[in-house]
Amino acid sequence: MGQSPFVHGGPVKPDNFLNRRRELRRLLNRLEKGQATAVVGQPHTGKTSLLRYVLDKVKRDSIVGHNLDHCWFRDIDSQMLSKTFNQPAFWKHVLEPLGSDLEEGELLTFYKTTRENDFGAFTLMRLFSAMDDAGLRIVVMLDEFDALLNHPILNSAEFYGSLRSLSSRFSSLGLVIATRRSLNQLNVQTQEINPHSSPYFNVFTELQLGPLPKRDVAAFLAQAKERITVKDREFITLASGRHPYLLQLAGDIIWEMDLEGVDDTERYRQAAEELQVQSEGHFADTWRAWSNAERKVITAVSLAQMTTLAEDHYFDWGDLVEDISDYSPEIRGLEKSGTIAEVEPGKWQVTQGALLWWLADEIKRQVRDEASLESWLESQELTGVLTQQEKRNIMTILGKLGGLLAHGATTMIEAFAKGVGEGLGESTIRMGL
Prior knowledge:
Strand order of the largest sheet: 2-3-4-1-5
Strand content: 5-15%
Order of helices and strands: HEHHEHHHEHEHEHHHHHHHEEHHHHHH
Shape: globular
Helix content: 40-55%
Structural class: alpha/beta
Number of helices: 21
């Protein structure tokens, strides 16, 4: 029967990493120059997997040769740091290879002095300056950087300021952070502890992990050979929106459907239902990662999209969002991440079928009348974002969608499965998302 090539549920090993050649090349080129980079992406887009790929010297060398052989790579999972972990402990871990790898000489003396002075700011500057002169570099890769925003010690002006200052002054310190938040959101998040100085993260360049390119998706799905049909590829692509985790999950589910001999429309109905169940935690996590304004945009786009099933036209955006220009940064961010796409001027759609199904079921479970809508909006932290008129508009839409939403995602899944099973084409199937 063979083993499924689709791996999901956590970071993948370098050999199983989906092609991110463009992003890897850009990241490694910046590391060659000692520049700071923020790898930004929604949950499960492969941030950790990308960092692990870079940490693998063989994989790294396959892209940039031996251009980074003068670097030490230090990987830190911010989620694993204890509440008492402080700056001296951080620098002790980061600089540890110097103590074991350097030969006797001036640079080793600088390192020992820095360690003896508990990694104070002045001695750190002298050490990194000496490393600059020696052409050596430490690359610090901070995964799950968002966890530091709640750390009792490291979430401080002193720590962020030292990272910014050292990385901007010395090419011997390369920084890579992996985060769910954009650089702008990180700057806003830390503004309270940094009211008068330059933003901490303006020395970073943002590297967005969006949906996988179509050519890479096609090459990846080709690994399954004849086990994945043309219709299967259509299902996997449209249900996942080419999101790495959803792509792997949908592919694995289709693989199992094939093993069980499920065919035609029933194959895609069962696969969609399974995908909906297995991706529930992913979407709950993603929803938490979005800002309130992003949640508002997703809610508006999703409800507008759902009306294409109830009524054969697009819902007028203006009925739900009074001034779309106020949300253009969020729209651009969600478009860049591949979550929504503009299908015609001013008309947007959710690209991930599974996301639309999740939200439909979420609304079905929680929203039954105006009081429950208010409770749901409050629990999603949308109460202060929506105006009273927008809330009334939502209730009006939910009333129109009453029959559709009475079954949650079921009706949408059935329409989607039928479209794939009958080979109706991408544009027609998307209308059923």
